[in-house]
Amino acid sequence: MSEILSVKNLGKSYDTGFTALKNVNLDIEEGEILALLGPNGAGKTTLISIICGIANITSGSVTVGGYDIGRDYRKARNLIGLVPQEINLEPFEKVINTVRFSRGLFGKKPDDAFIEKILRKLSLWDKRNNRTMELSGGMRRRVLIAKALCHEPRILFLDEPTAGVDVELRKDMWEVVAELKKDGVTIILTTHYIEEAEAIADRIAVINKGEILLVEGKDSLMQRMGQKCMTIELHEPIPAVPDSLSAYGLELGSDGTSLVYTYDTRAERTGITKLLSDLSEAGLVLKDLQTQQNSLEDIFVGLVKENAA
Amino acid sequence: MNLQAVRSIYLYEMARFFRSMIQSFVSPVISTSLYFIVFGAAIGSRIQEVEGISYGAFIVPGLIMLSVITQAISNGSFGIYFPKFVGTVFEILSAPVNYFEIILGYVGAAATKALFIGVVILGTSFFFVDITIAHPLAMVLFLVLTSVSFSLLGFILGIWAKSFEQLQLVPLLIVTPLIFLGGSFYSITMLPPFWQTVTLFNPVVYLISGFRWAFFGVADVPVLISLVAISGFLGVCLLFVAWIFRSGWRLRS
How far is it, in rounded angstroms, from Cα A91 to Cα A135? Predict the structure, then answer.
């Protein structure tokens, strides 16, 4: 696979002195889904705005499909589709007209057959003659996606595509993204829902305070940093963790009937076998056992905290 | 050159105009008719001819200019302010278009609308007064230059404005007074000498004077100066817009 987007030493600061991005480096492979994860104000939207030409660059460079976004802005922008965070649509305009407008704006000849294909794919064909203000929030988001796709871009930016959207619509949106990936579109989405990144991304970049903290394959990231928790439920409550078990760093639940053991899946030995035998030696009777993989959320919170420290 | 984009912007803006056709067409006809009734019939009947032209006919060029200028500014400013207001401007900024193409689309549409209104008013005035146009080509040239340059000024205002209130501010406080005091309804020779000199600092005087010359062959200032003035104004607006897009002022953060 080859790089379709390359961000080199990108910096962005405003006249107010605020630095939104610090020396950002990011390479995106063609056909992948990258989730750009970060808390509010981390610089996600700023990064996207610069790549798409909405914000000016302070330092560094960006190439899209090998074209510099400043020198070759026409060729670079032709490859990009952008779905902004806010649902920005002209309220009185019909769905089909606003989509046609976007296609023309990107210099493409009118092609109603192609627009029909996109609207059908996004379940918007029946609504094509509705004014955008008559549509629900989820549908309006789809109109924005149709507008972004109608000039046949190779990269699609989705800036918080599911912010403020209910669970069902969110799953709906993920299906749309999966479909687009099948068609070979490279997708970069920003989100602060870890669940979202976990569900659909191939790779994850974590950004905080304008710095990229890491970029890594989702699976390896979760494996590398993943910790597991084992919750041990006891038959009888105990007042404190017995001294003989102090080496395991167990946490006692508030009602005294559960112990939580945290271990590293990367470690050669997890220590579970030894713990279980020590538990029975200490005279504790087990009722149930549960293990749980740490989610990306925990990893993320950990990283951001580390970065703040 | 992304002509497809220019075409898209232009047609999209014109569609907005045609959606409100009644408002676009009927309102200038009614307001012009009112001007003719009030200024032409009621007041005009008590005014002698101005420079050998009946007062009703004399005000026609001024009336057309008044509407063309205000319409050009309001269309030009609304066209770009509205996308800024609803947030759709991101699409224009992220599209493979340069500033000249954006202007061609937006200002072209605003100027077309203003021209259309000008022609409607001219047509309406034929019902009220007898007019013969002495220099038709010059009239068209002045009309086009005025429509384009004031649409461009409107476009700049639309980029500058941060609220609907600001959008109205400049037309209301500066442009409308300049037009009314620029000899729309009188010849500046009718003013006392001191005010005649003051008036020469009003750019609209040159416009209306030139436009009136195209109709009747008489002018307050030489027609060449009028032509230079309006062309110069257009040039300044173009330079300013070029700077706006290069710097991203009020458009790109």
Answer: 10
